[in-house]
């Protein structure tokens, strides 16, 4: 039983660290690269550079401005919740003691004689 508790604690910690590593990589490689702000598009639907916007406004072409604002979706919220629950799982696993029979030789001998 001590082995099961140790393995449960070990894999709980391992999955917690892997989850935190995944978060760090997502923020560094993906989320921080999302553009926030206004992007102008021409009438054909192509994004325009600031220089193109100036000349297009002079020619009175119709422009569409799209504003992008990113926030956490359901998937990211569930990953955060799962990680928080993993922390609770690890704490509970460490706080709950193993049965006394795993630590007391007399109880083990009595159990084996039954």
- Report on the biggest sheet: 2 strands, antiparallel
Provide the structure class.
Answer: mainly alpha
Q: What percentage of amino acids are in beta strands?
A: 5-15%
In what order do the strands lie side by side in the largest sheet? 1-2
Shape: rod-shaped
Order of helices and strands: HEHEHH
Distance from first to last alpha carbon: 19 Å
> Number of helix segments?
4
Oligomeric composition of the shown chains: single chain
Please tell me how large the radius of gyration is.
28 Å
Q: Return the average pLDDT rounded to an integer.
A: 81
Strand tally is: 2
Low-confidence stretches: none
Helix content: 55-70%
Plain-language structure description:
- The protein has helices at about 1-30, 50-60, 75-95, 105-114, and strands at about 35-40, 65-70.
- It has about 110 residues and is mostly helical.
- It has a two-stranded antiparallel ribbon with strand order 1-2.
- α1 runs antiparallel to α3.
- The radius of gyration is 28 Å and the shape is rod-shaped.
Short description:
The protein has 114 residues and is mainly alpha-helical.
Helices, strands, pairings?
Blueprint: H1 2-29, E1 37-41, H2 50-58, E2 64-68, H3 74-95, H4 105-113
Helix pairs in contact: 1-3
Structure characteristics:
single chain; about 110 residues; mainly alpha; two-stranded antiparallel sheet; 4 helices; about 10% strand
